[in-house]
Amino acid sequence: MHAATRRAIFRRLAAANPEPKTELEHSSPFELLVAVMLSAHTTDKSVNAATRKLFPLASTPASILALGEEGVKPYLKSVGLYNAKSKNLIGLCRMLVELHGGEVPADRESLEALPGVGRKTANVVLNIIFGETQIAVDTHIFRVANRTGLAPGKTPRAVEDALTANTPEEFKRNAHHWLILHGRYACTARAPACPKCIISDLCEYPGKTKAGPAKERRRSQTAFPGASKSRMFLRKPHKTSAE
Asked: 192-203: buried (b, 16+ CB within 10 Å) or exposed (e) per residue?
């Protein structure tokens, strides 16, 4: 993909949603760390359902540690792999208390040493909490980057490296938010909403979805639960001379 096309894609995504936010609910760096760790192999909706019950009761490393592994399990049952994640959560809290004074560390090495925290989770925390221009690649971003031609790669790390190298600097801070939302609500795994996509004319995907009028009406009414929030997928903007 040509550099000018990449810039045009991000320009449109930014214009549609100038201040994108994570959909994981949190009110502190620690709560975000926990929410992102829990989100592996499950939906943000499921994680939010769990943390809405857990965080009012325990929202610090010490308070969750006091609950113990068996104590947190009932709160995490809406989350996939909750047994393993309960164990990781207690281990994570113990390390934060014992090694970091109960605070979320600001460096990748310390973050990735925590139980249940891999590169993707560390990237999200470093980006949102500490303002670093990290791009976290989840399944949505992996799909969008490969399908559109924005940053093809056979592994999440290859896609991350390509996005880091090729995304214009002014868009790097929010790039992963825009791409996650785009993958969640428009460029879905099955039947992507190509006729409603604001970057469809810039996308290099050869198998774009085509919808008839009746199907398109149904899709516009039901397909995008987050559209009113993100304003990203309601209509395609007019092309400008810069694009």
From this structure: bbbbbbbbbebb
Q: Kindly report the pTM of this predicted structure.
A: 0.81
pLDDT computed for residue 1 by the predictor: 86
Which listed residue (44, 120, 172, 239) is catalytic?
Answer: 120
**Is the residue at 11 inside a domain?**
no
58-67 per-position pLDDT tens digit? 999 999 999 9
More confident residue, 6 or 228: 6
Task: Output the domain CATH number for residue 188.
Answer: 1.10.1670.10
Catalytic: 120?
Answer: yes
| 107 in active site | no
Please classify residue 158 by burial: count the beta carbons closer than 10 Å to its beta carbon, then call 0-12 exposed, 13-18 middle and 19+ buried: middle
CB 108 within 8 A of CB 126: yes
The residue segments making up the domain with residue 217 are: 139-230
Secondary structure of residue 31 in the 3-state scheme: helix
Answer for the pair 111, 117: CB distance below 8 angstroms, yes or no.
Answer: yes
Q: How many domains does the chain have?
A: 2
The answer to whether the beta carbons of residues 142 and 156 sit under 8 Å apart is yes
Q: Is 160 within the bounds of a domain? A: yes
Which tokens sit at 210? 């085509």
State the catalytic residue, choosing from 138, 172, 229, 236.
138
Task: Give pLDDT tens digits for 173-185.
Answer: 999 999 999 999 9
Tell me the C-alpha distance between 11 and 16, whole Å.
9
